[in-house]
Amino acid sequence: MNFYFPLETLSRDLSWLRFNGRVLQEAQSHTVPLLERLKFMAIFSSNLDEFFKVRVATLRRLTKLKKKTRAKLGESPKRQLREVLAEVKTQQQAFGVTFREQLLPELNAQHIHLVNEGELTPAQREWTAQYFRDNVRDLLSPVALDDTLHHLFLKDQAVYLAFFLSQPRSPKGKAEAERVLVMELPTKRHGGRFVRLPDEGEERYVLFLDDVIRVGAAELFPAYQQVAVSAIKLSRDAELDIEEEVSGDLMEKIRSSLAKRATGFPARLLYDPEMPPETLRAIKQKTGITDEALVEGSRYHNFRDFFGFPHFEEAHFHFPPRPALPHPTLPRTGSLLAAIATRDHLLHPPYQSFDYVTRLLREAAADPRVSAISITLYRVASKSAVVKALLKAAKHGKQVTVVVELKARFDEESNLFWADKLKRAGANVIFTTPELKVHSKLLLIARREADETTRQYAYFSTGNFNESTSEVYTDHGLFTADERLTREASSVFDYLRDQQTTPELEHLMVAPFGLRPGLNALVDYEIKQARKGKEAYIILKMNAVEDRGMIAKLYEASQAGVRVELIVRGIGCLVPGQPGFSENISQRGLVDRFLEHSRVYVFAHGGEEKVYVSSADWMTRNLDRRVEVAFPIFNEELRAEVRHLLDLQRHDNVKARDFENNFILPTEGEKPLRAQEATYAWLKGLKRRRGRA
């Protein structure tokens, strides 16, 4: 039977902005500790910066294509850009209101005052002026925008202060009537964006570094009576323009493109709306920035610097401590390889410690019976314990194969650094072809056992081999020696080595060759079950659902009577609950203390429920242009564990939002359930429950 329905979708960019709106909701929520709300403001700001550098820059590039070429896109980039910028403006206004009318008054009520230079008492102003002389003045190097300067280059994502000087004190002719100078805010050299003033009793005072400079501006330019100081920040296009490259040396392309990124065309210039028009005019003239890149901001830019807001000790300002839990079946000391040999184990960072992964690598590096280690690296920590263990393994003579992804956006430079170190240590470093990104998270260890046979041990994960992000990203990882999985993981690494032979797979679903067909087959099975009048359901937890083909398949399933539940943290282009084609689909998203990052696919499958955990979102790039792995959970106990954690999110009524960003609240008589808190509590009691069993 053929179904006809309109493929109604929400644009990817507007959907992403909805996600960032949920982040802003956390900054606005009184259920979030006060200083944590400042961090959510920082996350919102950092997210929006990346959005402009990547998505808005891409839309602007598309608008410059020839009309015939634009027509092939099927959508109008100009219209999309207008809609996106309108939504951004609305969110920016809400951001400003949140900061000025909510957070600042609440900080004041807690005896923390983020003051500007106009609010300083005479004593505070004197202290600030002296601080400027002692700690800041020598860090400043303003550049005059006059006839001697042909072009002003502004660094990407740096805050600049622009000075408009007027009313010279000296007689006419000895000083220009008006001058404009620009200077990078020396945040890094100063050691942060904020200055803590001396306390006055129980009152604590904090000042932006910007305002310290405003206090000292008169001393900096003594020849002028009036000095107006305004802030600007430029975001440059961060796309590397290599998605369609199919030849040449990728590493050199990446190195070249990283250099170009800093000089990419301007995607957005944020400016203080109080900036004198003379200042803005001079900046536009010297930079060549056009009006389309101008975005009215506020007095302060780079709110991501609030990650470095001064620390105050009161416990109620912060989330309660949630130390990583010990694992219920993995040993705290002793051999992890021996434990994995006996059974499968699931790891759930950040609730449980990622240290089990680094311990496994260190053990493998030191074990004389381990002959080979293969791993995919997408994003690693700046001081990576994972890479250090691999370096140790290579120096101990192990055959170390490392697939390094060079196109992990904003981590390319770090990945190149570690790739060079690994190659020098003797590791076999593999760079994939430019058109294929490796996003899967795989670790495979080969060990010669006591009976002289070789056994393989694997770790499959939804999250990166990155101990830093493992503290804030929620993920699932599977330790296993099950030959059904390790044998196929080995086939995936064989494919990555030669990138020619498609692996033969029965249990793993691997993009770009088998994941989409495998998912379609699983959805089709649910459709057939529903048409027979049998129970049919699909539960999907992901960061993004964007691929039009998979959305169409879910709409088809809905029409057939399949119940579809989506838990989507970020981009959700599918429109749920629409009569005629998506009335059987529901969608919710969860934003809380930790960043939801795991992907789980559940299919009823005629009463023999199938549970897959994956690195892949349902985006076209993930299904068709990346190496992604979805792995089944065979162990019944562990499958129930994944389902229980998923069910907690399905029933969250504290931090869950619906498709329209409305909070899903408890119904009458229903107890509040906050999934992340409930997850921690459940995992904390897991060892005790299994011990009794």
Automatic annotation (TrEMBL):
Binding site for Mg(2+): R379, R409
Domain Polyphosphate kinase C-terminal: 336-500, 508-662
Record domain Polyphosphate kinase N-terminal: where: 10-115
Post-translational modification: An intermediate of this reaction is the autophosphorylated ppk in which a phosphate is covalently linked to a histidine residue through a N-P bond.
EC number: 2.7.4.1
GO biological process: polyphosphate biosynthetic process
Keywords annotated in UniProt: ATP-binding, Kinase, Magnesium, Metal-binding, Nucleotide-binding, Phosphoprotein, Transferase
Keyword Magnesium assigned: yes
CC cofactor: Mg(2+)
Family label: Belongs to the polyphosphate kinase 1 (PPK1) family.
Descriptive protein name: Polyphosphate kinase
